[in-house]
Structures are given as C-alpha cells and as structure tokens.
C-alpha cells in the first residue's frame, strides 16, 4: 500500500519519509490515536537555520519546541527498566525439569524521549 494510505499528503510534502519495516502501517493500525498525535505534532514543527545555529547550552531550541508540541498531549520522557527471566528446559528420562534464572535490572536506565 502507498504511504498516502497512512500519512497525509501535506506531511509527505514536508518530510522525507522512509517506511522502515512497514512502521507506518504498524503504527496506524495498532496505535491510531498516538500515530495521529505524532503526525499532528510533526506537521506543526518546522526546523529553521536559526534553530540549528543558535547556541543552546544544556538544551537547544529544537527539543524545547518539540516538547511544547508533545507534552500537552501527555508525551513525556520515560526511563525504561527491565528484568530478564531465562527458563531452561532439561528433558530427562524422568520427565522435563525447568529451571529459571532471574537477572534483575538487566536493562536499566535507558531513556526514551517521548512515550
């Protein structure tokens, strides 16, 4: 299916879109509200030469502008934590034996800008 089935024409005129592994189709069908919010915010965003050249110190105007578009819709920076459980099945003559190993904080502290 063409991208115009999932993305507005004005969006495709503004942005160069690469639909890696059918991301547009997946987002449009599995998270339609969030996908619409993403498209809406990006349609309002414009990157200017002045934004690129401006000194930002800790944070430039570019992420501040993006934050002003996403935060009112409830999108915030989030830290992702994850534990890992590994299950090993051993097949013996007496039956199957399962052992589990828990690795706490297997993934810790990865930040995602807007979730």
Structure keywords:
2 domains; single chain; alpha+beta; 115 residues; 37% helix; two-stranded antiparallel ribbon
Question: What percent of the residues sit in helical stretches (DSSP H or I)?
Answer: 25-40%
Strand segment count: 2
Alpha carbon gap, first and last residue: 27 Å
- In N-to-C order, the SSE pattern is HHHHHEE
List the domain count as a whole number: 2
Summarize the main sheet: 2 strands, antiparallel
Mean pLDDT rating? 88
Shape: elongated
- How big is the Rg? 22 Å
Strand order of the largest sheet: 1-2
Strand content: 25-35%
Number of helices: 5
User: What class would the helix/strand composition place it in?
Assistant: alpha+beta
Low-confidence stretches: none
